[in-house]
Amino acid sequence: EYHEGKIGDExxxxxxxxxxxxxxxxxxxxxxxxxxxxxxxxxYPQRQDIVEKFGTKWTEPGxxxxxxxxxxxxxxxxNEIQLSANPNFFLGKPAVEKVQMFMINEKTTALAMYEQGQxxxxxxxxxxxxxxxxxxxxxxxxxxxxxxxYYYGFVIDRKPFDDVRVRKAFSMAIDRSVFPKVLHGGEQPxxxxxxxxxLAHDSxxxxxxxxxxxxxxxxxAGYPDGKGFPPVxxxxxxxxxxKIVAEAAQGMWKRNLGVLVRLENQEWKVYLKKLQxxxxxxxxxxxxxxxxxxxxxxxxFTALSGNNNTHWKxxxxxxxxxxxxxxxxxxxxxxxxDEAQKILxxxxxxxxxxxxxxxxxxxxxxxxxxxxxxx
Length: 375
Fold this sequence. Notes:
Layout: E1 15-19, E2 22-25, H1 34-37, H2 48-54, E3 70-76, E4 80-85, E5 98-102, H3 107-115, E6 121-122, H4 132-135, E7 141-154, H5 164-172, H6 178-183, E8 188-189, H7 211-220, E9 232-237, H8 240-257, E10 261-266, H9 268-277, E11 282-288, H10 294-298, H11 315-326, H12 330-347, E12 351-363
Parallel strand pairs: 9-10, 9-11
Antiparallel strand pairs: 1-2, 3-4, 4-5, 6-12, 7-11, 7-12, 8-12
Helix pairs in contact: 5-7, 11-12
């Protein structure tokens, strides 16, 4: 409201520094997830005088003020970042004096640089799918489950996916157990949306693999054995992993429903724009936790969410999320989210949850002390 100009007086914001180590925040209504939000980077304090002094250049080396273990020494945009140890870090100066971070587009190039000793650390973005099993045997390999979901969304106000029976048929035709086998990255099949490790995760929620029921629903919707089914497209952003998932889903839809789905892909920025202007019938997206609370996952699909590309709206779903946000009793929150998840993943089904992901990394064994986050 303050940024929209609805509140002009900063004193009415309800945010006050009580002393050097205490911040007091007064909310308009109860928000059980608020403490979790304070771990999200956008809530970190910034020096107002620095932002005002340097404008759009405030994040450049020599301008930005940080309080972490490393300082930004140099930044060659789209190429390389150099960090130097912060002598004033509150836990003491790091043992590593300097860190160089390279932006490398090709996974094979990054892996080759690691194996030649030019890099000390690589992660999912730098590990080709077919190399994950081999690398998993290295002493510096780690795999950490992530609070990150992968899904296909339907544009539900366009035929044929305006019919929930068709959406359910497409979901039940998919055998999610295939994806960990073809991706080799520690993925966990998921028919529900809230990921493992988060409050209200329940693997029993959602539609599971059931080809006979999928065919029955498609027949009931007017497409027996896929006959008369209109041309539809599955879109995804260009990536080796996404291509493998899309081709697997395409094969299962053809085999189990008799439906041929066309595949198309674009680079990420082009793909995002297309989702807003001319979306495919089915699209690939994912979500990683900004803060470790189901509110962050479930609100993606509310009517007013800017991340809801399905065009789906359900007033009861939105109402349940408002109730859950104000509820502090954990068991009651779970019950509310269960009802909301069943609407999302069973009754209305604007999305097909497919799996949750894991982060694979390889660290030079001569280093220790690197902590891995599930977010």
